[in-house]
Amino acid sequence: MRGLLAAASEKLAADPTGASVLADEALHAARSLRDSLLHGEAALALAACHHHRADLPKANEFIEESLQAFERAGKSSRLGRVYKLQALVFSMQDRVSLALAAAVKSLSYPDLDAKDRAFVFCVIGSCFSRLFDVPTAVDLMERRALPEADTSGDPQAIVACYLRTAAYLNMCAVWSAGIPHSLTVGIKRPDNLASPAEYLERAMRYLDVCETHGDNMLIKDRPYFFAERASAVALRDGYEHALPFLGQARAVTSDRIPVTKPFVLLENAVIARIAGRWDEALALIEEMQRLPAWHIWQRTVFFELSCIYRALGKDQEALRALEKFTDLQTNMARLANTWVDDALNQQRYGKQLDLSHLRSSVLDTAEPAALQRASRYVESNLHRRLALSDVARQSGVSVRTLQTLYQNFHGVSASAFIKEQKMQRAHQMLAGGDVSVYQTADAIGYTSPHNLSRDFRERFGYAPSDVRPSSAKR
Fold first, then answer.
1. Long-range contact set of residues 340-347: C-beta below 8 Å, sequence gap at least 24
2. For 196-207, what is each residue's pLDDT tens digit?
């Protein structure tokens, strides 16, 4: 079963349908074995597959199954990644308040590393862009997401965070230029917006960072990268200069990831509409609407159609599109503030969301500097046998204060946090399949492979050798 989950994880980015077959097989095996820990892992893997396929009801179903399995197994330390995925699904469903609550909740669990936290802050940025405004989302991304991505050193996390920040900056440039956009309609334009040129310069700088990691870019991110590059170039240099990037965006879409093609067509349509290419924009949207996943962006689609039809003198069509957009906008506002009404989920998320407090907790009162220094020191020194006194000294606090900080912000002791980071690093190394258990133990400061195997089995419920495609020990 471990081999099935490893294979599903490897296939997920490029072939979520194929990955779901493997994850489903693993889940059936875990259910029959009545192993709650493996049950939680398999349900989470299958939920991730359905999320990638944009089948959100199914993703929610298996997320709930994973949560219950981990809770039943008493493995609360495993819940960070589950809440992270739940936040992504809630966000795609426009259930923004719940997405924000799930994302912030995920940050309190020790199983999230810097890469995971970077992706979580991407979700929070998306929530902020809808609950507050786009400049607030940019602020969040630059203050929290980009540093986490840089700390992780993971190319995929770096691309994801820098690409989304560039997208928000492109939207800021549109807003600053006074161009209508679905995300800014009905919102008072701030007086302190920078010039479009300033936003575009920052966007291009972040896109350049993405380009340096082009060889490691996920298949699903390639179309987004070229589309955002096209958007920035069109706003800065004109529509004709953006056409090569739009062509590249379409060329790298994948039928295996159904959301990429409609997104690129819609981005192309928006760019064409802003450039006054009304007929071209309309044709692109009509092409997009023939694709099965177009409905994910239907609110933006009807906003764009209302603008295009009005410019083409088709007043009745423009009015009908505007009415649909208004209905969807109203529904989005309702969904954004919906909350759970069952006792179990109220126990998980609380009875209501204190939005102003949550915003300040994310933006204004981040982890104390001492705790940030401690976590950075731990992540940079996992190859050593870390004593709490060393971590506390590097952080500038006492051991007692260090313990209090970890308990308050991560819900575990400092020792448990360090051990969790070592286990996550070991899992990542072994999943690559090119290191032995002995080498892994040495790389994370363990004195013997036996001690690593003992702690690894206690943490994950299986031996280190089971992580790799081959279960034969080296």
1. 340/98
2. 999 999 999 999
